[in-house]
Amino acid sequence: MTLTLKKAVASDGAELAWTEEGQGEPLLLVAGQATGISGWDPVVPGLAPSFRVIRFDHRGIGASTEGRPENYTTRAFAADAVAVLDAAGVAKAHIYGHSMGGRVAQRMAVDFPVRVASLVLAATSAGEAGGVGRDPSATAALISTDPARMAPLFFSPAWARENPAAVAAFFRVQASATVKSRHFRASRLHDAWDVLPSIQAPALIIHGNEDALSPVANAVMMAERIPDSRLIQVDGGRHGLHLDDARVQTWIEDFLALAVPAGAAH
Length: 266
Hints:
globular; 8 strands; alpha/beta; eight-stranded mixed beta sheet; Rossmann fold
């Protein structure tokens, strides 16, 4: 897939590469830790017929520049995402975040509520402090950056065998070791548990009950704290369930179709 990349400028001058496909209600996709634009390739074709799908590379990833070291936090990443919306001329959008992208989406909903029409939080949590931590072996596989070790944590073996190009694209990250470390730290230090009750946007929380990277108990806790939220627990779902389970795509599309229009008052 050949994408035309545009640039947004963050508050510290970092250039954020973004692209868009489709027409309709604006939908911003926020990727996980050290994951690039191409990681969303399997889901965009299903969303673009109904939505103006906007996606971007986090700072330091892919075609985006690094910016200042202190701006590697989920709160700063949320401001980056708003800069992308500004560059796209979008006042308010539906926000779909996966993993660390879901943590960034939470911060967007708290810090920039007027910019958020609805939230989709996939395979994420509100932070390790106060949440349920993962097994150390899963962390070791994640920080190894070895696709062979990471893939079983994200995808079912059958889907991975049938979609090698999508798996390769998901794990293909253009970033320095320093940037990857900063992303890992930003995700690890995220803590939004106390502010979740202030989220005003309707939220769909989707989580696999076999997610070794973010135990499903975190999703249950988030659903209890976000006022207007719905939780779907997916039997057998792993950390990449938004890509390898077609039902997840359908549930998300149905939720977004019924959500408050981005152009409406909320």
